[in-house]
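Researcher: Re-running this chain for the archive, since the previous output was lost when a drive failed. Same request as before.
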Amino acid sequence: MSHIINASNLKKSYGNVKAVKGIDFHVNEGQLFAFVGPNGAGKTTTIDIICTLLKPDSGAVIVNGYTLGKQDDKIRKNIGIVFQDSILDNLLTVRENLYTRGSFYGLSSKELSAAVEKAARAADVQSFYNRPYGKISGGQRRRADIARALVNTPKILFLDEPTTGLDPQTRKSVWNTIRNLQKGAGMTVFLTTHYMEEAAKADYIAIIDNGRISAKGTPPELRARHSTDTLRLISKDNGRLATFLNEQNIKFIISGGAFIINISNTLGALPLVKKTERLISGFEVISGSMDDAFVKITGHAMREDAD
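Model: Regenerated structure tokens:
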């Protein structure tokens, strides 16, 4: 699988603040790539550099074969960006906003119409196509933002925390749109987020914290390396079960009325369940989560302070 983005030794400072501290990563063509980290970690700075909006202090970036700093115009023709804050006009309809955006690309009238219609279908905005942008819901606005970014038929779609502030149902709708683009159109999607449950849906994840890449891998790889499965035992007699586990040198904690035991993997629960079956009334095996992996990698839970 070819690399559509390569970043090497990328650095950026704002005065004495080192926002990005020499990071290296790549994005494979056609992947949904999640760039994960708390606010203030360096996500937005990195995405702004790759999208030619910000000049790095040092390092190199190649986007679809074009070199940042030398072929920026060609990079811009290959990307679409959905910013954290919308740049569409509240007074114009969704359709008018898309045509306004499309007019920047020097297309003929026929080409512009075709490009706008294709983007509208891809982002599923037809049901509110002729409504003012300022009068539609938050989820509809995000889909319109995505449609705007698709007008130039980009090879790579950048989404900078696209679901922040949306309710769960609306986030799901936006995610369906993102997945349809990535799977249906084969588009590369570069997502920044601080929602670990969203990152778990990606093909590949890079975790950034305090300006450095802390870990990289697929969601299953990161969970396997950095999270722990747990076994919950519901006892018939707490005293007897505690005594048995202590005799077997099995470490446990009691939480929520259950005995919690860390296990190396899901199958590791079977011998323990067999040994304790006469002392328990039930059990549950819980797989390690991306939240667990993030805490193990960075040493803290996800921060959501201002970027």
